[in-house]
């Protein structure tokens, strides 16, 4: 018989658990935002990031910045770089969560593909960003 024990999360990792819950609860909106930003910019700006400091907001993570960070952390981000390189925006959502001195990969294939999520929600990118940043701020406070 297997048992699970829930270990108390440390304060420095609490943001990861809250971000996981936020992503789980808002997959459609994140997929829609991902596709909307892809339509506007392609991959010219880099990977979408969620910077949690000082308050949660969306940013772009240019490839050179991610590669530079990978070099500084002794190539521990190789898998993330591979996912970025082979990202399929029409079926996957790929974002980088940025906490204090830590990053977290946000990567999933939603039940409703990003283009359909964007179409179904019928909201523009600015509205999606504003709504998600507000909800994320509430989730992490």
Short description:
It comes from Dulcicalothrix desertica PCC 7102. With 141 residues, the chain is an alpha+beta fold. The chain contains six helices and four strands; from the N terminus they run ααββααββαα.
Output mean pLDDT: 90
Overall number of strands: 4
Rg from C-alpha positions?
A: 15 Å
- Secondary structural class: alpha+beta
The helix content is 40-55%
The low-confidence runs, each spanning 5 or more residues with pLDDT under 50, are 1-8
The outline comes out as globular
Number of domains in the coordinates? 1
- Give, in order, the helices and strands: HHEEHHEEHH
Termini separation comes to 37 Å
Largest sheet: 4 strands, mixed
What topology, given as strand order, has the largest sheet? 2-1-3-4
How large is the count of helical segments? 6
